[in-house]
Design a protein that fits this description.
Blueprint lengths: L1 H17 L3 H7 L5 H14 L4 H9 L2 H8 L5 H15 L3 H9 L2 H7 L11 H16 L8 H9 L2 H8 L5 H15 L3
Helix pairs in contact: 2-3, 3-6, 5-6, 6-9, 9-12, 11-12
């Protein structure tokens, strides 16, 4: 069943962490070998999804700073996976989110809102992920706006980029962009 598979995936994530694999993956982010960096980014994006213990291990190993550098990668998939990993880290702990913001992370996420299409990826999926990542950074778990972060997102240029995404042919991108836009307009 799907529930059993999800539970199995969770156990695998714990096993990987318990084997000590997260710090070496974070170290791979510093490599000058692109295949190592790309492998680490993708692995960490999966390992940090819905797994608080792995988020803590990745954060403590320095993943936040390293991933932030990769959000501007020339490789679209790497950019997207890095942004999602950052989101996974930041939604687990307000301290992590504050560090991300202090390092200029909101500007990096706003920049993700208008990336050029890559033929290897579904552009609507990339756009939706960018919108949802930004939303997760400027809202609490219960949907309340974090005024300081919303203001920073507006200053970083989120509103015109979200307005452009509102014209998307993809219904999910359009709807999500409109929702985030409405919540940010109060801070413009």
């Amino acid at each position: 069943s799907a529930a059993e598979q999800a539970e199995g995936n969770k156990q695998i994530k714990h096993d990987i962490r318990n084997a000590g694999a997260i710090p070496p993956l974070v170290d791979f982010l510093k490599s000058d070998q692109n295949d190592r960096v790309q492998t680490a980014v993708v692995a960490l994006s999966f390992l940090t999804a819905d797994c608080k213990e792995n988020v803590v291990a990745a954060y403590e190993a320095g993943a936040l700073e390293m991933m932030l550098k990769l959000v501007d990668s020339s490789v679209a998939g790497e950019r997207a996976a890095a942004a999602t990993t950052l989101r996974n880290i930041c939604v687990e702990d307000d301290k992590y989110r504050q560090s991300f913001v202090k390092l200029g992370g909101l500007q990096a996420l706003v920049n993700q809102l208008d990336t050029k299409p890559d033929p290897a990826l579904n552009h609507a999926d990339v756009q939706l992920e960018a919108v949802l990542n930004l939303q997760d950074m400027v809202e609490t778990d219960d949907g309340n706006i974090i005024a300081e972060y919303a203001t920073l997102a507006v200053k970083a240029g989120a509103i015109p980029k979200l307005e452009a995404l509102e014209k998307s042919d993809d219904e999910e991108v359009k709807t999500s962009s409109k929702e985030v836009l409405e919540s940010l307009r109060d801070f413009a």
